[in-house]
Every structure is written in C-alpha cells, then in structure tokens.
Design brief:
Elements: H1 6-14, E1 19-23, H2 27-35, E2 40-43, H3 47-50, H4 62-75, E3 80-84, H5 93-105, E4 110-112, H6 120-128, E5 133-138, H7 144-147, H8 157-173, E6 177-181, H9 185-194, E7 199-202, E8 210-213, H10 215-218, H11 240-253
Parallel strand pairs: 1-2, 1-8, 2-3, 3-4, 4-5, 5-6, 6-7, 7-8
Helix pairs in contact: 2-4, 4-5, 5-6, 6-8, 8-9
Bound molecules: 3-methyl-2-oxobutanoic acid and sodium ion (NA).
C-alpha cells in the first residue's frame, strides 16, 4: 500500500480531490480509519478533553502526545500522521526543536503548531532541521483563555485580512499544510485560494481542500457536547466502520460540511 506523503496531499489540492482527516489516539482506531482510506490522522491535543475529560487542552504534555503517537503509528500503514505540539512546547524556537524531535521519533511525519506571524522563525527553523510543519489558524484552542471561550474567529473585516496575511506569512516561512478552525466559510475559501499548500478545515465550510473532525464528535460520543460544525455519523445507527466510510464519502463528494455545519 502506497503511503500518503506531503507531496501526495499537495497533488490532491492541485487535482481538486478532497483530503480526509480524523483525529486518532490509539492503534485500534488508527487501523480502522486507515483501512477505510483516511488520508491524514492527527494525534490532537484534543485528547486532553476527549480522552482525559479536561475543559481545555492546556494540560497535555509532550510525553502524552508522544505516547499516543507511538500507538497511532503502530496502527497506521497508509495515512499521513501528524502530531500536535502541546501548549508551551514551542514557546521558543529552541524549545520547539527538542520537543518536535520527540514527536518525530515517536512516529509523526509532521508536527502542528497553533498561531500566526510570531511563529515564522520557529517554522523555518523546524523545517531546516527536517521537521515538516502544519500551521493552525482561526480558533486556536491553546489560546482559549485569551479569546475568552471557544469562539468563531475572523468575523470582522480587519481580523479576516489579518488572518489571510498570517497564513501567507506562515506559508512563506515553510508550513506545508494549514488547519483552519472555526472561521466563516467565505474567509476559509479566500485563504484556501490564496495559499498553494493544502488547507484542511474544521468549522470552516466546505470549500477548503479537506476536512478534519475529532473522532469522538464524528461518532457522537463526546459526553454532553457536540459543536455546531461537527456531525454525528452514528446518529442513524450502523457500525463504526460504516460511519467512517460515510464521513469520507461525504467529504469526497463535497456534502460535508453543509451550511448547517458552517459559519456565515
Ligand atoms: O487537537 C485537535 O483535535 C485539533 C483538531 C481539532 C484540528 O487540533
Ligand atoms: Na489540537
């Protein structure tokens, strides 16, 4: 089986073939998602919330992500595995090198960091040292206490322009993939056409190059909370495998997310 690489994902953007992504935290689910043909698996720091029951992602450590990355790597043959750099693990470029090294050694093929222009030197330094980087803009959950809650970002005209500028700056610094979370559909569409690297959305409308969901939301098992932009693919019953397949088929067809799962 041919492994998904960053060049394969880049080609998907060029050919208008949607990229499908899910979070995964263990070998068993990673294997199931991989068998259904998912392109990208993210070992997200959302694990602090969905696995550990915390209110935010701030308590997650590099050791936590490394442990789950090793598990996901063991379960994965084809998909491209990305590991989240947790809160404060990339506070300085120097910190980021040591911490990214642990995640790459655990089996990640790329690391993801949250934030804009202030990260440009860190991105360039990581890439120069052989660590591919995914950016993350919009609602960046590690900054939830700065935002004052999990809120849609980029609604005002100046904030929207700022986000586009930061995305371009990160691309110039060397990111090879961008996650865009909880921004209006129109802004996500503009970012997607402004960048030549693939943009993967969550709560960012259907016109990005791909979609990602937190697996627990996609299965409808997050204790008592379902974000507007997510969809419970188990709502009509069936097997977990069928749910994953329906999600992948919907993303390929451009049927997910609908307007009901997007922000104006
Ligand atoms: O941690 C996570 O699950 C994420 C996705 C929501 C993109 O960062
Ligand atoms: Na994350």
């Amino acid at each position: 089986m041919k492994k998904v690489t960053i060049s394969a994902l880049q080609k998907q953007k060029q050919n208008n073939q949607k990229i499908t992504a899910l979070t995964a935290y263990d070998a068993s689910f990673a294997m199931m998602f991989d068998e259904q043909g998912i392109d990208v698996l993210l070992v997200g720091d959302s694990l602090g919330m969905v696995l550990n029951g915390q209110d935010d992602t701030l308590q997650v450590t590099v050791a936590d992500i490394a442990y789950h990355t090793r598990a996901v790597r063991r379960g994965t043959e084809r998909a491209f595995v990305i590991a989240d750099m947790p809160f404060m693990s990339y506070a300085s470029a120097q910190d980021s090198y040591q911490n990214a090294a642990q995640l790459m050694a655990a089996g990640a093929s790329m690391v993801k960091i949250e934030g804009g222009r202030w990260l440009c030197d860190t991105v360039t330094g990581l890439v120069q040292r052989g660590v591919p980087v995914c950016g993350h803009l919009g609602l960046t959950p590690q900054s939830v206490h700065v935002f004052g809650g999990f809120k849609v970002q980029g609604r005002e005209k100046d904030k929207a322009q700022q986000l586009i500028d930061e995305a371009l700056a990160l691309e110039a610094a060397g990111i090879q993939l961008l996650v865009l979370e909880c921004v209006p559909t129109e802004l996500a569409t503009r970012v997607t056409s402004a960048l030549s690297i693939p943009v993967i959305g969550i709560g960012a409308g259907r016109f990005t190059d791909g979609q990602i969901l937190v697996m627990h939301d996609m299965f409808g098992i997050s204790a008592n909370y379902m974000p507007k932009f997510s969809k419970n693919y188990m709502a009509d019953g069936g097997t977990l495998r069928d749910a994953v397949k329906r999600y992948i088929d919907d993303v390929h067809a451009g049927d997910f997310p609908s307007d009901a799962h997007s922000f104006e």
